[in-house]
Amino acid sequence: METQGKFAGKIVLVTGGSRGIGYATAAAFLAEGARVAICALDGPRLAAALEELGKLGEVAGWQADVSDFPAMQDLVRRTLARFGRIDILVNNAGRLALADFSTQDTASIHAILDTNVRGTLNATRAVLPHLLENDAGCVINIASALGTYGMPRAVVYCASKSAVIGFTAALALELRDTGVRVYGIAPGMTATDMQVQFSGYRQGLPPELVAEDILLLAGPNPPVRTGACLGADS
Q1: Per residue in 173-208, pLDDT tens?
Q2: Domain assignment of residue 92, yes or no
Q3: 27 in any annotated domain
Q4: Could you say which of 85, 142, 205, 232 is the most buried, measured as most Cβ atoms within 10 Å of its Cβ?
């Protein structure tokens, strides 16, 4: 039986796909007929996510650290071996630690930047040769509203998400003569585990609503131009 849905036949790779916005995004693409690959750091959580996502469609996943470029190259190789190609990359993996910047420890700062910035660059750099070879595809970077207006005790996180917004704009310009599109999305308060770190309890928009916007960006009629960050400069 032929798969039905707006993304039938498409292959989507989602980093940080075992929970929160990443999990909701993987589920939404599967519901629309895509085949999906995810990665995550937490092995047991990844296994649980794959079991649930597998009820929606064809999904594969591997434990991988986005801050490790060879690991991202291997993730892309595994995805291509399983599905044959990649059409859409969603750079979702993220990390947060709240602290006063003047006393924040160096390891915490590096961990946030390694995941949120280096991770986004690594996954994109690993998949980009494949997208350029096909002269088609879409990269969607998950930033944050905090990358535009900031928040006390989240200084490094805000800086990292601002970097993602800048990376999105610059990469889109670099690829403007190709068939590869690049978008960002800067969600506000979203009811995920990360939000619990901010406030102590789960609040904000359901991650499923953010996933709906991600699918809009990946579709044929995105609501913003390539290089723009939905929710930041749109």
Answers
A1: 999 999 999 999 998 665 545 555 555 554 558 889
A2: yes
A3: yes
A4: 142
Q: What does pLDDT average to over the chain?
A: 92
pLDDT, one tens digit per residue, over 91-113 is 999 998 899 999 999 999 999 99
Q: How far apart are CA 163 and CA 225, in angstroms?
A: 19
CA 46/CA 188 separation, integer angstroms: 25
Instruction: Domain of residue 44: give its range.
Output: 11-230
- 157 is annotated as an active-site residue: yes
Q: 5 in a domain, yes or no?
A: no
- Tokens 């997208």 found at: 131
The domain that holds 53 is classified in CATH as 3.40.50.720
Does a structural domain hold residue 98? yes
Distance CA 101, CA 33 (A): 44
Q: How far apart are CA 193 and CA 176, in angstroms?
A: 36
Q: Residue 1: what pLDDT?
A: 42
Instruction: Tell which residue, 181, 186, 168, 184, has the closest CA to residue 220.
Output: 181
Number of domains in the chain: 1
CA distances from 138 to 4, 68, 110, 178, 228 (A): 21, 22, 28, 11, 13
d(CA 21, CA 142): 9
